[in-house]
Specification:
The chain is built from 7 helices and no strands. It is mostly helical and 186 residues long.
Length: 186
């Protein structure tokens, strides 16, 4: 039995290195690049924002790893947080529609807000999270309408983000189905 405990601790150690080491490496890239190129010019504020948008998902992944044994649930959280991170990062860096100063880009933060609020409403339970992420996917797909009205052709990017939200919903659905199966067997 001690082999299982040690193996589990070793496994958690690798996850922690990935979850926290990845963001640390990403923060080091611009810091190092600034030493060798004048094209990379980050301010202290840029590093703070980057640290926050990297640390929040990492902390939530850490909490999920402790709270759930379901691989599907964990994967659903990782996909949802990764999608929210990609939307935030691309929107802050260059903007999804036009440039980062285009006010229509605020709708993408609204999609993330829908994901957050609906996750709280679902009380982070797998079945409710599946519905929450499906609703978020619908909201993401709906952003194509103002994108077209603005004359922007970002449909492929919106389709990718929508697919990621749907993947998260499917993973949560699998987690809920797995929980129902385990409950029925016991």
């Amino acid at each position: 039995m001690s082999g299982n405990i040690e193996g589990g601790a070793r496994h958690r150690g690798w996850w922690r290195i990935i979850v926290w080491g990845g963001p640390a490496v990403l923060l080091l890239i611009p810091a190092v690049a600034m030493q060798f190129s004048d094209e990379v010019q980050w301010t202290a504020f840029d590093f703070i924002v980057a640290a926050v948008i990297l640390a929040v998902p990492a902390a939530l992944i850490e909490l999920t790893m402790r709270a759930s044994r379901s691989v599907a649930y964990r994967a659903g959280v990782v996909v949802a947080l990764g999608t929210a991170f990609l939307i935030t990062w691309s929107n802050l860096a260059v903007g999804i529609i036009g440039n980062e100063d285009n006010p229509i880009n605020q709708i993408f933060f609204g999609v993330i807000l829908i994901a957050i609020v609906s996750a709280f409403i679902a009380n982070f339970r797998a079945r409710g999270m599946a519905l929450a992420m499906a609703a978020t996917a619908v909201a993401m797909a709906a952003t194509a309408i103002p994108a077209f009205m603005d004359g922007s052709v970002v449909v492929r990017l919106i389709a990718i983000f929508t697919a990621l939200w749907l993947l998260s919903a499917w993973l949560f659905h699998k987690a809920a189905t797995g929980q129902a199966t385990v409950a029925a067997e016991s």
